[in-house]
């Protein structure tokens, strides 16, 4: 059993390591995963453990360690959808709330730190100061004014002191502890200087009092807090952007639906929908939940679910998915899955769970962080002692010690992995690649062999007619009429493929009598008053039909892995049809991409060797293993795993054991539920080309994580000796203010680097790109949507549009532009905030801008 806790008080990787250690110490806890970015913790309990008792013990253990842990409670009484939203919205809401709170702290801190800095440093730069603060006689007002300006800064940032000293007293110092120690030491030295000034004035030594007023360090204490808060503000804003993928997914689901009750329409919140409700979906509206079309028709854009940009026409009996957009038409539908059971809720849940898990590489950072802060405190104390022993003034020794404390905060170390994981998995989800865990995302980058199931993965999974040859004295339409009539009585998969082919030719059925099935041979009947037969060459010989004219062609089909079907009518051969499970358009390109990436490809199938080898030749797999039963697939995966990491790609129930056994199991989205449950990655588009894309995403994410860890570790390795004054002999020194700015920027740089993954796109060769375009064109034709005629356009205009927030906005802008006379097509990019209008004739720029403006958006520039 797994339970999620909201954790308070964590600020760095040392905190998350301490919280995880505390939770693991509780009896009955089997596993713990702490997410610093989301301030959450997933706890897995051992079988038989009482969840309520264990949860109380976990909360107590974490509190004892100096933090807070509260079990996340779902809202009772709400529908599944609202419960899912409540749980999954937390990263988005928390990030926004954190950014707003830190912005307030930053504003107050800046308002008081700027005049404090002006007062303390004005004499160095010759800045004008009020007369009552100048001269040796006014040193006390000068010092007290600085002290009073420091107090509001310390007050609004008191969280650093409260959390930092609490963690320190619990024996688990963290980032806040270093900041608290550094700023307290600076402020404490300033207070010491105040007493020193008072003592000097009492003794009548104005010169000593003035000298003491020049080393107050109040400005350092305030500047440390302000610059750290500035870094936290940038960090909070960047964190908010890492949750964009979840936020966009959540925004896709309509908040309301039109329910049909006794023939009348009523608009109700989606949370009130129940299974069996009849809903109406109009053009331009989103599909509220998963269900089946009952009446009407519409062209539905399912790109938000599958990543496939080609709209699909939906008719009665077709399934529709919540979150998809109905572009044209009207239809009514029956709600079959609502709330947490919808596909979109499942996707959001998968992405949220994936970002809560830890990649194995993150454990390195956790181990380092667990000892890093105590070591830094020891280094700071040693630095102070060393400078004091060398005879340096107290303020110099203190300055170096404070600089070490401030510059060494391990924020960047804690953010390095979770930010990249969150952005990477979110970007994958936007492209229809659902990664279930951070571990799977990391493992995929090291895959050496990709094993692919044949049927339904490399091939379409359903037979179709690939070739049709007529006998010398017969026509193709006659062959189609005969095939439709006799095969129309059979339910065999090959018969269904033949019927579909004949129906596409538009021929009519003929009268059929005395229909019979011949085991191991085919079919016989009387068609339109004449004896007819359909089947293999053995059946033809038994019927006395001469097939010699097409026998060589039939043998050629068989060698290519196809099934030849002979048709005879009135005792004479009419023709032969070749039926096969055809290869997906992108399969060959996908395997070519995998080989180019240095990955070996193996095709695994239960089919016979001749058929398997024919498919191998077509797609170019490195190896084929045929005639394998389901348990044999799992055994083959185990054998191949001895040679390196293995990824298994499959779609059926018989693939589930192999998917579970592989280092990375990849399920084709159109496959069975059990295959998807057994897999680590789900490809929603059912496109094999997404297999190399998944590995590319994994490699890009791991590369980003390594860059982040390198920056975080090298930053501290280089900066600590400099801060300690190891290079003071060469004139290289740092003060606490510069250290605070450097520490803040290190965290911002790490998060900003992770955000680069938001622009990730798979990179394929021209062959793969052409194959993907061919697949899209074929899907457009097979989906019943007429493929747009390709035309050469006269020119293009690119509009930069502000105000677009979601796919609905994209649809509005696209519709507005395509409504302008002369605009043949509009391509709108939400992320780039651009709209490219392809023009068939010259259209004034003002007309294009006016159309977008009238739709409610702002055009900032037209190229």
Q: What features would you describe in this structure?
A:
- With 863 residues, this protein is of the alpha+beta class.
- It is built from 31 helices and 28 strands.
- The strands form 5 sheets. Strands 5, 6, 7, 8, 9, 10 and 11 form a 7-stranded antiparallel sheet that branches. A 7-stranded mixed sheet has the order 12-24-23-22-13-20-21, sandwiched between helices.
- Helix 14 runs antiparallel to helix 27 (690-723) and helix 27 (690-723) runs antiparallel to helix 28 (736-755).
- Mean pLDDT is 80; it is low at 75-89 and 779-794.
Q: Topology, please?
A:
Layout: E1 2-8, H1 13-24, E2 29-35, E3 40-45, H2 51-64, E4 68-71, H3 80-88, H4 90-125, H5 139-156, H6 158-169, H7 175-202, H8 206-213, H9 218-242, H10 244-252, E5 256-261, E6 264-269, E7 278-281, E8 290-301, H11 303-306, E9 312-314, E10 319-320, E11 325-337, H12 343-356, H13 362-389, H14 394-407, H15 411-430, E12 433-435, H16 438-443, E13 449-453, H17 454-458, E14 459-470, H18 476-487, H19 493-504, E15 512-518, E16 522-527, E17 530-535, H20 537-542, H21 548-559, E18 563-569, E19 572-583, H22 587-596, E20 600-604, H23 609-619, E21 623-625, H24 630-641, E22 646-650, H25 656-661, E23 664-668, H26 673-678, E24 681-683, H27 690-723, H28 736-755, H29 766-782, E25 795-802, H30 807-818, E26 823-829, E27 834-839, H31 845-854, E28 858-862
Parallel strand pairs: 13-20, 13-22, 20-21, 22-23, 23-24
Antiparallel strand pairs: 1-3, 1-4, 2-3, 5-6, 5-7, 7-11, 8-9, 8-10, 8-11, 12-24, 14-19, 15-16, 16-17, 17-18, 18-19, 25-27, 25-28, 26-27
Helix pairs in contact: 1-2, 1-13, 4-5, 4-9, 5-7, 5-9, 6-7, 7-8, 7-9, 7-14, 9-28, 10-15, 12-15, 13-14, 13-15, 14-27, 14-28, 15-27, 15-28, 18-19, 22-29, 27-28
């Amino acid at each position: 059993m797994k339970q999620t806790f909201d954790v308070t008080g964590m600020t760095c990787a040392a905190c998350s390591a301490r919280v995880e250690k505390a939770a693991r110490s509780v009896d009955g806890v089997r596993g713990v995963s702490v997410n610093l970015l989301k301030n959450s913790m997933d706890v897995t309990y051992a079988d038989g453990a009482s969840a309520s008792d264990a949860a109380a013990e976990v909360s107590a253990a974490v509190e004892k360690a100096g933090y807070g842990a509260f079990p996340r409670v779902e809202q009772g009484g709400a529908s599944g959808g609202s419960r899912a939203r409540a749980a999954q919205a937390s990263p988005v809401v928390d990030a926004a709330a954190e950014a707003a709170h830190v912005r307030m702290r930053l504003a107050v801190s800046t308002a008081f730190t700027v005049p404090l800095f002006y007062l303390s440093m004005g004499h160095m730069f010759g800045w004008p100061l009020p007369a009552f603060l100048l001269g040796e006689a006014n040193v006390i007002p000068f010092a007290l004014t600085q002290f009073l300006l420091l107090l509001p800064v310390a007050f609004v940032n008191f969280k650093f002191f409260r959390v930092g000293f609490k963690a320190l007293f619990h024996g688990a110092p963290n980032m806040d502890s270093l900041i608290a120690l550094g700023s307290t030491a600076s402020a404490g030295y300033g207070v010491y200087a105040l007493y020193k000034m008072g003592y000097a004035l009492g003794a009548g030594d104005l010169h000593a009092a003035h000298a003491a007023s020049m080393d107050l360090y109040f400005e350092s204490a305030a500047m440390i807090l302000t610059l750290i808060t500035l870094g936290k503000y940038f960090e909070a804003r960047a964190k908010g952007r890492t949750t964009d993928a979840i936020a966009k997914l959540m925004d896709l689901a309509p908040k309301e639906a039109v329910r049909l009750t006794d023939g009348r329409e009523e608009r109700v919140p989606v949370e009130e929908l129940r299974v069996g409700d009849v809903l109406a979906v109009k053009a331009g509206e989103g599909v509220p939940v998963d269900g089946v079309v009952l009446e009407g028709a519409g062209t539905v854009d399912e790109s938000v679910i599958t990543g496939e940009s080609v709209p699909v026409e939906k008719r009665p009996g077709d399934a529709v998915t919540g979150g998809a957009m109905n572009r044209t038409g009207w239809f009514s539908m029956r709600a079959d899955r609502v709330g947490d059971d919808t596909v979109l809720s499942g996707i959001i849940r998968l992405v949220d769970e994936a970002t809560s898990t830890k990649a194995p590489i993150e454990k390195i950072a956790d181990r380092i962080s667990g000892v890093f802060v105590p070591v830094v405190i020891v280094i700071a104390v040693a630095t102070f002692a060393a400078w004091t022993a060398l005879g340096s003034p107290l303020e110099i020794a203190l300055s170096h010690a404070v600089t070490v404390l401030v510059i060494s905060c391990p924020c960047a170390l804690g953010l390095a992995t979770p930010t990249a994981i969150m952005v990477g998995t979110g970007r994958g989800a936007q492209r229809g690649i659902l990664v279930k865990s951070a571990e799977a995302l990391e493992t995929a980058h090291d895959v050496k062999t990709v094993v692919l199931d044949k049927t339904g993965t490399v091939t379409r999974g359903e037979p179709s007619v690939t070739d049709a040859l007529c006998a010398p004295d017969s026509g193709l339409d006659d062959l189609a009429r005969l095939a439709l009539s006799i095969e129309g009585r059979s339910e065999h998969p090959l018969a269904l493929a033949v019927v579909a082919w004949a129906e596409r030719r538009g021929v009519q059925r003929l009268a059929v009598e005395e229909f019979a099935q011949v085991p191991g041979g085919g079919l016989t009947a009387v068609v339109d008053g004449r004896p007819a037969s359909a089947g293999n060459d053995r059946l033809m010989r038994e019927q006395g039909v001469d097939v010699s004219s097409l026998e060589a062609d039939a043998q050629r089909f068989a060698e290519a892995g196809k099934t030849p079907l002979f048709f005879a009518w009135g005792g004479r051969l009419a023709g032969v049809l070749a039926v096969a499970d055809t290869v997906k358009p992108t399969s060959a390109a996908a395997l070519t991409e995998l080989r180019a990436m240095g990955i070996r490809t193996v095709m695994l199938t239960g089919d016979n060797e001749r058929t398997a080898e024919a498919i191998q030749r077509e797609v170019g797999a490195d190896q084929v293993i045929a005639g394998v039963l389901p348990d044999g697939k799992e055994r083959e995966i185990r054998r191949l795993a001895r040679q390196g990491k293995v990824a298994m790609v499959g779609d059926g129930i018989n693939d589930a054991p192999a998917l579970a056994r592989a280092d990375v199991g990849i399920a084709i989205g159109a496959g069975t539920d059990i295959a998807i449950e057994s897999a680590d990655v789900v490809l929603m588009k059912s496109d094999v080309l997404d297999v190399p894309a998944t590995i590319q995403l994994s490699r890009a994410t791991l590369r980003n994580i390594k860059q982040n860890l390198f920056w975080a570790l090298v930053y501290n390795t280089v900066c600590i000796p400099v801060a300690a004054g190891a290079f003071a002999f060469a004139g290289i020194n740092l003060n606490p203010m510069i250290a605070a700015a450097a520490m803040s920027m290190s965290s911002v740089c790490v998060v900003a680097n992770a955000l680069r993954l938001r622009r990730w796109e798979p990179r394929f060769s021209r062959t793969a790109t052409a194959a993907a375009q061919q697949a899209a064109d074929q899907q457009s034709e097979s989906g019943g949507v007429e493929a747009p005629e390709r035309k050469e356009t006269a020119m293009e205009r690119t509009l930069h549009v502000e105000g677009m927030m979601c796919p609905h906005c994209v649809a509005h802008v696209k519709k507005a532009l395509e409504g302008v006379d002369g605009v043949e097509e509009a391509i709108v990019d939400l992320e780039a905030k651009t709209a490219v209008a392809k023009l068939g004739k010259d259209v004034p720029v003002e007309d294009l801008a006016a159309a977008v403006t009238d739709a409610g958006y702002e055009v900032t520039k037209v190229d």
